[in-house]
Amino acid sequence: MLFHFVKKIKEIAWLIPGFLLWAAFPPMAERMDVVFAIAPLLWLSRQGEIRQSLKRWFFNGLLFWVATLSWMPAIIKNGGPWPLVALGWFALGAYCALYFAAFGVSAAIYWRWAAPRAYVWRLLGLIIVEPILWAGFELMRSELFGGFSWNHLGVPLVNAGFGAPAQIGGVYLCSAIVVLLNGTWASIFERMFKRFAISTKAQSMPAYLRVVETFLPLALVYLLFSLSNVPATEEEAEEKPNNAISVALVQRNFPCVFSRDQNEENPYEAYTKLLSNVSLLRPSLVVLPESAFCEIGRLDKRAAKEFAAFITETSGAKAVLAGGSRNEHAREYNSSALYLFEGKSLQSVQTYDKVHLVPFGEYIPGDKFIPYLQKFAPVGSCTPGELKTLYFNDDVKIGVAICFEDTDSAQIRRLAAMGAEMLVFITNDSWFSDSIEPLQHYWQAQSRAIETGLSVVRVGNSGVTAVIRPDGKSSILSDSTGKPLIDERGAMYEWVLPSTSKTIYVRYGDLPLIILFSLLILMVILIQYGEYYEKRRTLSM
Predict the structure, then answer these.
(1) H-type helices in 125-165, by residue range?
(2) Cis peptide leading into 165, omega within 30 of 0?
(3) Please, which pLDDT band fits residue 196 given cuts at 50, 70 and 90?
(4) Cα distance between residue 16 and residue 188, in whole Å
(5) What is the Cα–Cα distance from 439 to 70, expressed in whole angstroms?
């Protein structure tokens, strides 16, 4: 009886890494937990036991993802059928946990092969193999099957103010640094308790030589931070620079889906009250969130243009950027529009159609071939647009991202490479109001500023509204205590400095990571095949 009890306790204790990972993100936001959370799992992979590694990594990943996605049931109150929401919640959690398992298996295969070999292979496993494998699997999760770019290990590091390396290798490099630090603690544990360490040639080496496993990774981390040249946020000045753009960010917090029953409020009256807080400052640009014009009419129709004129006249601005929908050639688009005015005359309307659509939200896979499936898409079956920038005052390029797009490093990097000088993220987080999703969503966006070296203007409907500087620091629409106004209304005024400089990440993107990761995966496959072939050959003799 006692033996079984101890065994159960041991199984539960092995889930502590998953709990610590969850605690590093909102709602607990114990950011620094991430730098030691997975050290026990890395130690386990170094034992070379593939099945145990697969099991432990998968269930810790499942715990982390199901817990961190606990905001998904919030969509039930907005019309989502609870059986489908629950199924989607756990299915997405299990899918993401598979990447944890894939890492655990790949690492275990490498360490089982490296154990009897020269010490240099152990160092390479610590410094290169583990960090690159993890970052590569995160990249795969972000791009495969539509991509789910959420809660990378490097995100808490960025939010804690240590995200400078993202300008070199994106948030994936920050994740690699997290794994490198965890691997260092695992190595220290192995040296302290040799009886728990896998038998390797390294064990016979003097301790004063093996201590390089600690100092070399830490020196590498220091070097990466030294090479990161993120400009510090300039101190607030009494007068903004001549080329700065003054922006008003307006968060009204309207319903996620408009209907006569849900929304009886007059939008003209609502925005008049909100804009009164910033109109005296006469901003150049007013930014409203995703879907802001849905109750008015399609973005390219007369009613929307008249409403845009009302917004600019009330605020004293020259332009307004807002989200809504439009239809062209019988195709529905989730879009944003930039309305430029000269006095009271509308000069131009530029639209950007969302490129990265959310499956089962903005479309059902295969619904273009089976039209009946379109009935199940919550906001209708949308069509993806083409990536492009918008022009403000004919000389400043703006890169726009709608909703989930601000989590996609690759897409935002392409906007910067196309010449975007500032970024505008608009989102409608009211689908998940009264949950932790809006804050988690905002955490993802911080990395985009550092990756691109561009300022980010972010307006969330029932979300986090803020201006994020190129160093990751933010000015947030908040209450008197500094807490973000997530489900409360408000407006804020900030100035944004456009930039034409390009970071290393913008220039080279994820190509270095893809090359290294591909080579490592090939190596792992060859190692496993070699062991399998050797066993077959031995049995046949």
Answers:
(1) 130-143, 154-159
(2) no
(3) very low
(4) 19
(5) 13
Q: What is the mean pLDDT of the chain?
A: 88
Instruction: Please tell me what DSSP assigns to residue 239.
Output: S
CB 185 within 8 A of CB 39: yes
Q: Does residue 368 sit in helix, strand or coil?
A: coil
**Hunting for tokens 């703006």 — which residue is that?**
398
Q: What is the pTM of this model?
A: 0.92
Show the tokens assigned to 44: 């386990």
Burial of residue 253 (CB within 10 Å: 0-12, 13-18, 19+) is: buried
Structural domains of the chain ordered from first start: 11-229+510-540 (no CATH), 245-507 (3.60.110.10)
Residue of 386, 381, 309 whose CA lies nearest to 351:
386
538 by DSSP, 3-state: which?
A: helix
Contacts of 189 (CB under 8 A, 6+ apart): 39, 43, 196
| Contact between 174 and 447 (Cβ < 8 Å) | yes
Q: How far from 11 is each of 43, 63, 183, CA to CA, in Å? A: 16, 13, 22
DSSP summary character for residue 205: S
Looking at the chain, the whole-number percentage of residues with pLDDT higher than 90 is: 68
First-to-final CA distance of the chain: 46
For residue 169, CA distances in Å to 126, 162, 173, 404, 476 come to: 19, 14, 5, 21, 26
State both tokens at 194.
Answer: 């040799």
Phi/psi for 496 (5° steps) reads -125, 135
**What would the pLDDT profile of 514-540 be if each residue is shown by its tens digit?**
999 999 999 999 999 887 777 666 666
Q: Give the CB-side neighbour count of residue 285, counting CA atoms within 13 A.
A: 26
- DSSP annotation of 492: E
At 153, list the tokens: 């290990």
For the segment 459-499, what is each residue's pLDDT rounded down to a tens digit? 999 999 999 999 999 999 998 888 999 989 999 999 999 99
Pairing of strands 331-342, 319-328: antiparallel
Least confident range from 67-71, 81-85, 221-225, 312-316: namely 81-85
Side by side, which strands form the sheet with 245-251? 345-353, 331-342, 319-328, 285-287, 245-251, 490-496
Quick one: pLDDT band at residue 237, thresholds 50, 70, 90? very low
Distance CA 126, CA 183 (A): 6
Q: Name the 3-class secondary structure at 321.
A: strand
Name 540's Cβ contacts closer than 8 Å, sequence gap at least 6. Answer: none
